Amino acid sequence: MKISEVAGQTGLDAKTIRYYESIGLVDSPRRLDNGYRDYSEKNIRQLWFLRHARQFGFSIDECRLLLALWANPHRRSAEVHQLVAEKVRDIDRHIRELNEMKDMLGTLLAQCPGDDSPNCAIINKLATDSE
Description:
The chain is mostly helical. The chain is built from 6 helices and 2 strands. The protein has a two-stranded antiparallel ribbon. It starts with a helix and ends with a helix.
């Protein structure tokens, strides 16, 4: 299967697929005599796996680890569980940080008159060097 077909089937663009190959994240497909990549079912399964993992916010390094675990029939589910638990903690931390930013911006919006005057709490906050 050619890269354009794989891209259509997996929802990944060709540039992303080539990038994953260039960093050794997925197995390189065999090359046809004309130089075109010929993707196997295994290549496609790897790319589907990556697409899903990336949609859940896993980094390239985390995806590399997940792919290795997926390929290992002797894997321990505890390893996968630990990796996902860490990801959930990271997401929770990020949500807290985003909520703090939202609250701060809401406060600044309430303090900014939003009129023709130059006084603006938002600009003043951005211009200060303290948190």
